[in-house]
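Here is one chain, start to finish.
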Amino acid sequence: MMAGMIAFFTIVYIVIVNAAILADAGIPLVAGIIATVFVSFVGSMIMGLWANAPILLVPGMGINAMFVYTFVHSMGLLWQEALAVVVLSGVLFSIIAFTKLAHVITQSIPSSLKEAIAVGIGIFLTFIGLQQGGLVIADESTFVTLGSFTDANVIVTIVTLMVAVTLFIRQVAGNFLISILFGTVLAFFLGGIETSNTTPLSFQPYSEVFLGFSFTNIASVAFMAATFSLVMVIVFENIGLIHGHLNMAGSPEKYNRSLQANAISVISSGFLGTSPTVATVESAAGIAAGGRTGLTTITAGVMFLLSLLFIPFITMIPQSAIAPVLIIIGGLMMQNVQNINLNDFSEGFPAFLVIVLIPLTYSIADGIAFGFVAYPVLKILLGKHKELTKPLVIISALFFLNFVLQVWNGS
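Its structure:
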């Protein structure tokens, strides 16, 4: 339960952030908040009860941008039609998850790529933590640079990181939660907590979003292209995330049911009015804190539901108090690099591409795609085509086709 609370506090920002992104598609902000809370509750309950796994399911960052800026803005779909794309993608994902296709796909992915996905996500998580804590900021000349050590948020991040690392190494019970509370109190005294006007919650705007999907243009090229792209992203992103999380939790046997829970949750996303859920990277915070069963996920799910009452207070927790946890989790996930055979560069280089391109493109999906396309190409050029399986070649071709579709749609 403590692990569930920790995981919740590291991901609760998604309630506000996801709603703000969905608002750019025309979904009312308050409706987006309610939809995000509901789908996070439902997804986490499905994962906890069906798979008994400590993996939170919430709307995914990156995929929500794909929903809004690619499907709605670039491809011209209405947000109601984009929700229908989510529903159909969830159905196709479920067909894969509940049949032998899931096993075939999973077995066809080389070990080096699986491990690379976990490492890449870890570095991505660290990068997000460094950004949230102000240690890394944008720069016009070098893209990123070191933040100012006179910034109160940076001071809070550094001090809280030292406290969090110390508590974690000493295996103090509830170490991450303690560090988050410590960082919040420190930020308060240093003036790093912003107070703003709160938006009152009303279920009236949500009535037009709940079950608001529309299959009117299902036969259009844009609708089918959007569905194809989304299926590719959610299937392989979640395969990588679930694989990494369950290995970290020492429960690889829960993989099939976790993938199935994930697929059902995606369908519910379309019904409840938001972009698809994913096995969030922040689940690693709960796992690192000792979460091993579905009780962790159920606890977080209940807290999501209760968050509707306490959103003004939850949003007061500064990013500088959460950032250290993300940085530490990234360091833990980095350990998977030991399992990659870097001595064989035909295995190591595609894995390297996945690892660096996930954080540098700020997209888990694009980073995975580059690695999957590079792997068979390199094997063929080196005369090692016998090491390839037919499913892997097909998957790689689909990823390449997805890149072509993105270019074609100007995204």
